[in-house]
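Ticket #407: bound-state structure for pyridoxal-5'-phosphate.
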Amino acid sequence: MSKIKKIPFAPPDVTEADIEAVVKTLRSGWITTGPVTAEFESEICGYTGAEACLCMNSGTAAMELALRFLGVGEGDEVITTPYTYAATANVIVHTGARPVFVDVAPGSFNIDPRKIAEAITERTKAVMPVDIAGWPCDYDEIVEAVNAAKALYRPDPDTPQTWFDRIPILADSAHSFGAAYKGRMLGSVADFTAFSFHAVKNLTTSEGGALVLRPMGSRDMRAVYDQLRVLSLHGQNKDAFKKFNSSAWEYEIVSAGFKWNMTDISAALGLSQLARYDSDILPGRRRVFQSYREYLSDDRFLHPLAENAEKRSSCHVYNLRIPDAAGERRNAIIEKMFDRGISTNVHFKPLPLHPYYAGRGYNMCDYPIAHEMYLSEISLPVYPQLTDDDVLYVAEAMRSVTKEVLG
Ligand SMILES: *Cc1c(COP(=O)(O)O)cnc(C)c1O
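RESOLUTION: The complex was predicted; output attached.
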């Protein structure tokens, strides 16, 4: 029998250059939010084509900040998908609003714009699509759905909800940094876009995230950025770095804000990763995507796309589907893969299947497509450090284990 390899699911991709960048910041005399974070923000704007970027300590915080900024709360509804990680819906719950789940589109892991249209009410204050696995949602159709429902939009007075003439769109792009939709980088597509730089994501700062913004009419986006930053840091109108650099010690607390800032240590790692994102990280992930498709070409496997005429994936998760292996058989394949040293995963167990959301009355029967997609999904390892030999090893194991389980 051939030697067993150990293939972890998603180890961080950290180079010597990344480590040096972090060490340089540690030696600089300033380690929390400061010049390196500011530079990372400006590089993210340049990369994504966004108008403004606020780096934060998580993608979850970025989503919640957008909702809080909009003034979403008690009595409101936010439409999202049950096919996501809990963060997307949890932040809605934190604000006091109610998550309204609508099913994914047939054969897709992403939210169905037609079902968004049906779910909009006078209480809907935001729509949160999620680019599952790095594959962009149907943004034009989502905009069409909220445009068609303009008559139902009731923005709360005295909140930035009034800046929009239709329900605002907040993209959970935790998976899709570097992905593109109809020639535009994500970050410049939705009204608000939240990226995650968590350790398992494509580009990492260990923990971290960013909220990026498109232009909002003729608004001064620098002023909008300042407002968001103040809200993300205790409502304090002058941050620690500004105080450090001047004798003007005094500041004011203008709201009961949060504590969601990114440190310069994290930003240093992010900047170093971004510098090699297009030349190294994304091509590495794309190569793995292509190889799986090639090595597992029989029709029992349904593969995720890396791109089509309209969309380009960030190749974050290889969400393979095996329609003949739903549920228990899918789980048996995962166990047998593990016995061969290969960690696989499932993205995601839909939220109505978790006790908290089931307890709030959500029922999986109401989202039959999400359920079906979930039951037959297996995520294969994807990261640039995988050699072609590794990818072949995983693919051959998948083929033989699937045969063992399905015959
Ligand atoms: C990772 C993830 C998040 C949260 O990102 P954090 O940076 O860990 O807060 C949100 N949504 C989805 C779909 C994710 O996978």
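RESOLUTION NOTES: The chain has 14 helices and twelve strands.
TICKET STATUS: resolved
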